[in-house]
Design goal:
It is a single chain. The protein has a 9-stranded mixed β-sheet with strand order 10-9-8-7-11-6-12-14-13. It is 29% helix and 22% strand. With 373 residues, the chain is α/β, with parallel strands linked by helices. It is built from 12 helices and 14 strands.
């Protein structure tokens, strides 16, 4: 084998780890708030078993790989994208199963910052005489599980901003009309996004003007909680959101001055109303994100409007963007653009998008990337 740039790892091991990443990604939308994890068992240069974490509460990737390998797991090397757990959670410790199977070596991409693991899995394996090498393609591993790492590290969900706009940068006409800027293919991608996130958030103006349903059609692996940022708790009882609140969860984020009668009427209709104490929109936005983190929401899709998206950008809370660019022109100084808020004064303060991916959606262009930190 040809040595990698790092003396600890070889090219063949990199290839196997990338295969493990691909396996891990199959769990997206199914495993949250757990991390996505993939694992491959190798013995004598041959893959003898592989697996991934398929669903929250189900067997971990290491268990699947060991079960697939069966007796051939003895003396094998496990290639795993995240440090094996060493605690009793929804499932028993993976470290115990690895030791019992007679695994010789474990190669992992990164240690798990979860407090009940955080290096403990590595120590447990090493105490049992298993060689552990950590850090193979760690940057790629961190990118794979960036939402999980943010939730563990900051106690807040990964924020995905989405909007559709025309070539001249408008998200609606001067009268607020926006159906439809993007085409069916773009909207199908949005429904896929909705089907894998924990929550979909909009502002009160978007809820009023668009009367959206905010569900994934067809349904995805997750049923997202709909969230409306509505300081006055003014959401219409006749809106699609409220009329479906007993079928699909709906949380209205209200301010301290919201009238009790409005809050009671929304709760009577099946909505959850979370009344926050912050004196300003910015303070309440921070409270809201903290509250979602406490509920262990991992991914939140924000679909507008411009005030909400602008406030999130101003606060540095957007992590990922999905923009659908339609070959249309609206014009008009009063037609809104995607991001309101304060914005920045200098181009040196502009938010930069990394890892930009550009794809065609019939006539539209889908651009997605992550915010540079």
């Amino acid at each position: 084998m040809t040595a990698d740039a790092s003396p600890m790892f070889y090219r063949a091991e990199e290839d196997l780890m990338r295969r493990a990443f691909a396996l891990a990604e199959r769990g997206q939308g199914f495993v949250e708030p757990n991390p996505m994890v993939g694992c491959i068992a190798v013995r004598g240069g041959e893959v003898v078993g592989e697996g991934w974490h398929r669903r929250f509460g189900g067997p971990h990737a290491e268990i699947e790989a060991l079960q697939a390998a069966s007796k051939r797991a003895e003396g094998s090397t496990l290639i795993v994208t995240l440090e094996p757990c060493c605690h009793h959670g929804k499932t028993p410790p993976c470290t115990d199963a690895i030791i019992a199977a007679g695994v010789r070596e474990v190669i992992l991409a990164q240690r798990d910052p979860f407090p009940q693991v955080n290096g403990g899995g590595v120590r447990r394996l090493e105490e049992a005489g298993i060689e552990v090498r950590a850090g193979l393609l760690e940057d790629e591993a961190r990118r794979l599980n960036a939402p999980y790492l943010k939730l563990i590290g900051k106690g807040r969900p990964w924020i995905i901003a989405k909007w559709a706009m025309t070539l001249d940068g408008k998200i609606a006409t001067r009268a607020g009309h926006s159906r439809w800027i993007s085409g069916e293919a773009s909207r199908a991608v949005v429904h896929q996004l909705r089907g894998r996130v924990d929550a979909i958030m909009v502002g009160a103006a978007t809820a009023r003007l668009d009367d959206p349903l905010l569900t994934a059609r067809p349904p995805g692996p997750r049923i997202a909680t709909r969230i409306v940022l509505d300081s006055a708790a003014s959401l219409s009882l006749e809106s699609q959101l409220v009329r479906t609140a007993r079928e699909t969860p709906l949380v209205v984020i209200a301010g301290p001055a919201a009238m009790a009668a409005r809050i009671d009427s929304l709760r009577d209709a099946g909505c959850e109303v979370l009344q926050l104490s912050g004196a300003t929109h910015a303070e309440r936005l921070q409270e809201c994100l903290n509250a979602l983190g406490e509920r262990r929401m991992t991914n939140v899709l924000v679909e507008g409007g411009a005030q909400v998206l602008g406030a999130l950008r101003d606060a540095g809370e957007i992590d990922e963007v999905h923009v659908f660019l339609a070959p249309k022109l609206i014009g008009g100084v009063d037609a809104p653009s995607p991001l309101a808020g304060l914005g920045c004064e200098l181009m040196t303060s502009a938010t930069t998008i990394d890892d930009l991916v550009v794809a065609r959606c019939d006539d539209d262009i889908h651009l997605r990337g992550r915010i540079r930190r």
